[in-house]
Design brief:
CATH architecture: Alpha-Beta Barrel
Strand order of the largest sheet: 4-11-10-9-8-7-6-5
Helix content: 25-40%
Largest sheet: 8 strands, parallel
Bound molecules: flavin mononucleotide
Number of helices: 12
Distance between the termini: 38 Å
Structural class: alpha/beta
Length: about 325
């Protein structure tokens, strides 16, 4: 099964909470959280996908015939393409799929091989954070920890350090997840001091995920972040928000070169990835489609999807006169919003 339509169909028969739509755009699943949809009226998820269509790639074929390389660097690790698997936790609860966190992460890690890196998720049950780390090999997983209250944050960072990971992430926008505000442990909002404490505790490069303004990006930088993910959690924490592609360029321009800028939300194809790189991103995280690939055909499904993205990215680069990732610039796209 090396065709994504087939993988998607197979995933559809293995899940009860996601319809595995032909276009994963947030319309059918609007409001389904828990589930895989966007919050409230689902508008932020829907906007993530629709605004990407308002960025067009500029064809430019008067070029040499050299090889096209999609290779990139992730904190010293050579990756085949600057596309990463976004953290998705609670697979059973969110997709209604019979797959443990461990099985899910194994499928992703095995499917990505040494081609790229998997960000893993976290939940109130510490197993959601720790189970995937059993699948880690030589730090090819970036554990993504929720913004827990101080003592729990410290305890979980210690666990991450003991697991041998070399980069970690925190989805600070999860402070807005109603389901995690109550119960134990609980999440909280972090100010610059709170972020600094995470960086100091971790003693490894830390990426803050959930940045949607220049102001927040500068605060993350002040706290010592090694990188940020321009993200609105796939539209799951706030309705009626802007899409990530709309804010990316301004944020990247403000901090570029001083920390890594990643982006996620609605990216589905290699040409979507190209658009983000042209607007200043160092890399793109993709969420839901990788889940569908892993649920549909485990490691093989993940491999199929990753190869599809890579060949689409290569094709777009070729048609726009780019031979390497560093050739991709703002001139390669036209923004119509
Ligand atoms: C079902 C589901 C669970 C998620 N769980 C997490 C999580 O545990 N940690 C996290 O940082 N983000 C989580 N996210 C957000 C994703 O990491 C990512 O930001 C988002 O899915 C990107 O949008 P896309 O799915 O449209 O590519 C989750 C998203 C979904 C759909």
């Amino acid at each position: 099964m090396n065709d994504m339509n087939e993988v998607r169909r197979q995933a559809g028969s293995r899940m009860t909470k996601c319809r595995a739509c032909r276009e994963c755009n947030g319309i059918v699943c609007a409001g389904q959280t828990p589930g895989c949809g966007g919050k409230g009226n689902g508008s932020t998820f829907i906007r993530n996908v629709s605004k990407l269509k308002e960025v067009c790639v500029n064809m430019n074929v008067i070029a040499s015939n050299g090889e096209v390389s999609t290779e990139s660097d992730f904190f010293g690790k050579r990756v085949a393409l600057p596309v990463y698997v976004a953290p998705i936790g609670n697979i059973e609860a969110n997709y209604g799929a019979e797959m443990s966190e461990y099985e899910y992460t194994c499928a992703l890690v095995e499917g990505c091989g040494r081609d790229t890196i998997v960000f893993s998720g976290d939940g109130q049950n510490v197993d959601v954070l720790m189970e995937p780390l059993r699948a880690a090999h030589d730090g090819w997983i970036v554990p993504t920890i929720k913004p827990w209250q101080k003592d729990e944050m410290k305890r979980r960072i210690e666990m991450i350090k003991a697991s041998g990971c070399s980069v970690c992430c925190s989805d600070i926008d999860a402070a807005g997840l109603v389901s995690l505000k109550t119960g134990t442990p609980a999440v909280e909002f972090k100010d610059v001091q709170g972020l600094k404490e995470i960086v100091q505790e971790a003693q490894m490069p830390v990426i803050f995920k959930g940045i949607m303004t220049v102001e927040a990006a500068k605060k993350a930088m002040e706290a010592g972040a090694a990188g940020i993910v321009v993200s609105n959690h796939g539209g799951r924490v706030l309705q009626d928000g802007l899409s990530t592609i709309e804010v990316l360029e301004e944020i990247a321009n403000a901090v570029k070169g001083r920390m890594k800028v990643f982006v996620d939300g609605g990216f589905r194809s290699g040409s979507d990835v190209f658009k983000a790189l042209a607007l200043g991103a160092d890399g793109v995280l993709i969420g839901r489609p990788f889940s569908i690939a892993a649920i549909g055909n485990h490691a093989e499904g993940v491999r199929t999807y990753l190869h599809q993205i890579q060949s689409e990215l290569k094709e777009t680069m070729m048609m726009c006169g780019c031979r390497s990732i560093s050739d991709i610039s703002k001139d390669c796209v036209s923004v119509t919003f």
